[in-house]
Amino acid sequence: MPQVTAVSLQGQATTDDGQLTTKSTMEIVTAAIENYLIRVTPQEDPILKEMEARARETNFPIVGPLVGRLLYQLVKLTGSHRVLELGSGFGYSAYWFGQALGDSGELILTELLEENLALAKDSLERGKISSRARFYQGDALETLEGLEGQFDIIFNDVDKHQYPEVFKRASPRLRSGGLLISDNVLWQGKVVEGQPDERTRGILEYNRLIFESSEFFSSIIPLRDGISISLKS
Ligand SMILES: C[S@@+](CC[C@H](N)C(=O)[O-])C[C@H]1O[C@@H](n2cnc3c(N)ncnc32)[C@H](O)[C@@H]1O
Predict the structure, then answer these.
(1) 141 plus 28 within the same structural domain
(2) In the predicted model, what is the mean pLDDT of residues 19-38?
(3) In a domain, 166, yes or no
(4) With 39 labelled, which of 16, 195, 212, 228 sits at a CA distance of 20 to 30 A?
(5) Which residues approach ligand 1 with their CB closer than 6 A?
């Protein structure tokens, strides 16, 4: 069985056979099951593989291939055309969204750091999906204020203390039947540990908000670091 050789932020780890897995203060999915899921899942796109390798080498937290596939499926299931990402990093999750959207779709990437956005542009261009993408550098919530119209999906992966603010500001911008999706909502198991730090408090409050809201029907999938899917009524 592959052994974990490196652990990054947000529970992502590298095993000695080069796969991404989850290793954290608390195991959300056992390493054996996570490795099985990764092995059994086809992973063919060379650009995605290259991005996964970059994440391993730089310990950069990406959603990984299992969640990536789920994002792709959610676009297809909802017939989504317009997707907004809050916190795009170097474009890995955006690449999955972009592939699912097709030529008529619109994908908006937001990212604080210019160097990340440049890498995202390069990957999406090489994957021939950049024509459906728009790139915004700066704070994602400020960018959101300047964007027109509603979205079919808003995917949230910004700093965790901002999650409650994301809920308040992103919710009105979703169409009826749209999805608010957030990564890391189990936060390496810290959501059930005592003395939560600022980021954990942000996640706890976010999870409370999505389940208490009468406007949303929400689930948390305990895949990798936990992903929430909230359907707007
Ligand atoms: C977890 S990474 C994103 C990974 C990406 N979603 C993926 O799976 O490929 C979080 C990214 O969000 C960016 N970020 C954090 N807070 C942000 C904010 N308020 N506005 C824009 N970007 C933000 C960080 O610079 C970082 O690149």
Answers:
(1) no
(2) 78
(3) yes
(4) 228
(5) 61-63, 87-89, 92-93, 110-113, 116, 139-140, 157-159, 162
